[in-house]
Every structure is written in C-alpha cells, then in structure tokens.
Amino acid sequence: VSVKPISYQNDRFVQLSEMSISPFDRGYLFAHAAYEVTAVYHGELIDFSGHEQRLARTLDALAIPNPFQGDRLLQMHHTLIARNSLKEGLIYLQVTAGDYDLRDFAGPETIMPNVTAFAAEKKLIGDAARLGISTILSEDTRWQRRDLKTTQLLSQALAYRSARNADATTAIMCENGLITEAASANVWIVRKDGSLQTRERSSAILSGITRQRAIEEVFTTSAGLLVAPVIEIDGHQIGSGQPGPITRWIQALYYRTMGADLTKIGWL
Ligand code: PDD
Fold it and tell me: What pLDDT, in 10s, does the model give residues 60-81?
C-alpha cells in the first residue's frame, strides 16, 4: 500500500504532510469516530452507495452530524481519485466527533465533526487473491456494536499483530465457539454440499461453526482484499490448501461486476 500525496481535511484538499489533528480530537481520545474504506478499480469507485449509506448509519448512531449532504461525499471521492491519478486502491475516510480543547467524556450537545480522507494505491487483485491467505483464530474481544464502522479497532489491531507473529495475513475471530468475522473482513464458508455460510448481519446466534468442523473452503470479503481465499487457519490447511473452485467462481463474478477484464487475470 502506498499513500498518495493529495488528501482531504475539513472541506480542503491538502498535502498529506499538511494534515494535523488536535490531541483533544474525540476520535483520538475516545475512538468517537466513523470510518469507511472504498475500493477503487480502473479509477472507479466500487459499491460507493453502500459505503455512503453505512457511513450515514454509523454517524447517526454516534450522534455525529453527517458533514456530507447531497453528492458532496461522492464529489470528494472523485476529486481525491482525480488529483492523485489513482487507478487501483482505496479511499480511506474518517469522520470524528471533533475537538473541544478538553477531555470531556460526554462532549458538547451539538457535535462539530472533523473529517480526514486519503487515497492509497493498492493492488486489489494480487497475490492474496491468487494464492490465498493464511490466518489464525483469535477470540473476538470487541465491543457489542460491531455493526457500526467505528475506529474502535484495538482488538483487531492486536489480532493482526498476533497473526503477523504467526506469519499469517489476518485473524478470524470467534465468540462462544462461533466465527464472527475476520479482523477486517467478513468470512464465508463453503460447505461440503456446496452451500455458502456466513454470519448473519444481526448478532443472532447461528448454528455452530467450530474449528473442528469439516470446512471445505473459507474466504474473506472486504474493500481491502475484495474476495480472498483462506488456505490456512492456525497452521491447519483448509480444503486442499489451494483456493477452491467456488471461491474462484465468486472472485470471477465479483471482479466482472467491477469491470475487470478476466482474460487479463491469467490464474482465474
Ligand atoms: N474493513 N468486517 C470488518 C470488521 C471490517 O473491518 C471490514 C472492512 C469488513 C468488510 O466490510 P466491507 O466489505 O464493507 O469492506 C467486515 C476495512 C476494509 C478496513 O478496515 O480496512
């Protein structure tokens, strides 16, 4: 990943080096902040409206007024892409609950958000997609509002560090013996009968997925790695140890909806 030089802070496009954040910013003090990561492919935003809608939902739940009305969020994304000549990668956006020169837990009645955004170049259809990723299992120690995309990511950051120590790419998190999701992606399991299983959107309990269970294929989905086959969990091989046919099929479907030229992706 390489971060591009033109970024955005509170209505202005600035050099990355010119951005500054107060030590009293509520995002910094309390993780009182929403974020979104949107994939860019061929210079086009992928699934933008979904990200826009989720941002609105998160901001609402965090009592942060939405700083982007109408198509302003889209325009800002387009400008970051254009000014950085971004072809393939991500736009990272963060909206915090502002800074008030005080460490006050509750904060003011009316919040004035702080916005930052930057563009990063990243190969979205690269080695992770081609070869699969190794993972570890870790306990899901997060707070209970995982449906909100907040910067409260310490559990995930520590899970990523454990994964790195084990030469794995990411962690798959479990709670009460059931997989919730990966540290920064959703997890899908392809069952022996060909059916797909993933955790419900709500926090309702699913019929048991345990690590002992026969798992034929596992993959993750995210703006960061799109569809990534999981080939290993905690050192145990998944399926044949190679990305499986159903995951490949889903990759192909997804890449095609992005406008990717599948004939140029030799391994698919
Ligand atoms: N993470 N689950 C978690 C905990 C995530 O952090 C993410 C994305 C997802 C996948 O959501 P989406 O398909 O909308 O990207 C699921 C982003 C990429 C990140 O934090 O970098």
Answer: 999 999 999 999 999 999 999 9
Contact 72, 107 (CB under 8 A): no
Task: Ligand 1 pocket test: pick from 150, 186, 188 the residue with the most ligand atoms within 8 Å of its Cβ.
Answer: 186
**Residues whose CB falls within 8 Å of the CB of residue 134, separated by 6 or more in sequence, listed in order:** 166, 167, 168, 169, 230, 231, 232, 233
Instruction: Tell the residue number behind the tokens 């995951």, with chain if given.
Output: 247
- Give residue 102 CA to ligand 1 midpoint distance, Å: 31
The string of DSSP codes covering 212-261 is: TS--SEEEEEETTTEEEEEEEETTEEPTTSS--HHHHHHHHHHHHHTT--
Put simply, whether the predicted model's pTM sits higher than 0.85 gets the answer yes
User: Which residues of the chain carry a pLDDT beneath 70?
Assistant: 202-216
List pLDDT tens digits, range 127-148.
999 999 999 999 999 898 898 9
Q: Determine the distance separating the centroid of ligand 1 and the alpha carbon of 184, expressed in angstroms.
A: 5
Question: How far, CA to CA in Å, does 145 sit from each of 47, 54, 117, 148, 238?
Answer: 23, 14, 24, 6, 30
Cβ contact 260:41 at 8 Å: yes
CB atoms within 10 A of CB 193: 6
Structure token digits, residue 59: 């901001």
- pLDDT at position 216: 63
In the chain, how many H helices and how many E strands? 6, 15
